[in-house]
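Appendix B, record 7
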Amino acid sequence: MNIDLTDTTSSQINSALVKARRAIGSPATGMVLTLVIVTDEGNAYDALKAASDASKEHPSRILVVIKRPGRSPRDRKMARLDAEVRVAGEMATGETVLLRLHGELANHAHSVVLPLLLPDAPVVVWWPEEAPEHPSQDLLGRLAARRITDAQATEDPVATLGLRAETYTPGDTDLAWTRITPWRSVLAAALDQKHSAITSAVVEGEAYNPSTELLALWLAERLGVPVERRISDGPGLTAVRLETADGTICLDRANGSMAELAMPGQPDRHVALQRRETAELIAEELRRLDPDEMYARAIKFGVSSLSADGQGDKAAKAAAEKPAKAGADKAEADKADKGTAAEAAAQAPGAGEPAAAPAAKKTAAAAKKAAK
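Structure tokens (predicted):
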């Protein structure tokens, strides 16, 4: 059932939701969360379709915030809210509300969304395209327990990862991280088997693919070895190679669907690593709403610690050598302090003489005087 509302308010939208529920004979909601999608008119359809498919696994109230600030000064001064209410349609199992915020109202989206949130249910905010620099400080982001961004949709994905590391707050996550979940699962299962120590790693993927960087960061942080990032023709992630004394552990996906896992001393095996749709990624993120500690550790490790394609392992080795360098610097400082203390003692009055020497001199002088 669809209800169109023009120049409306949040109160009228809530009334329309109740009316639509009663009309279809389903007054109970049975929804587990509120998903807020912040997008523009051009990307609203794709984002809504992905969220609607994910709602089949997680029944939710979907609020699509479409900001239309206007181009002319007159349009920017106007403040109008248009809404479209959809309940139990073909695309979703819950409730969907499209909110079009015109003019000045586009700068106050949180005041429109707040009365429409489900009571006593978690809130998730998703930015399919451009996200705020600090999602947790955004007015909509403050309402959410989980904030989902997508670095792959930005102009400079690698720089965006650096920004996400600087502004990370528990509850933040990125779909670039979600895309590598199957890769991490296969690699973790492979490393659970008996193998010799890993000495270095190489991650290959197409340029401007933040998932490649995140997988390399995860390996570097967890294994503590130099990791090199190499550019390939894609699609997406193509290969991971872990060097050991016994040989190379290789997970290679050349066609974007089926991968081949090769381990020293074992037969090669095929692993399904299909590239997933956005709906599957959103559904995975909605399964857990607690902070993702592994994502936090990986992204904070720093993209700069990875070595670039064809430039060797200098940056990663420098990161690995930090503890050793700190220990050497401390030893040098202690040595310098000891040398300074010895020099000061040598320059002190009476330095180099036994402690009893001054008293002996005084005794000899007194005896000589008495003899005279």
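Remarks on this record: The radius of gyration is 32 Å. The chain has a mean pLDDT of 81.
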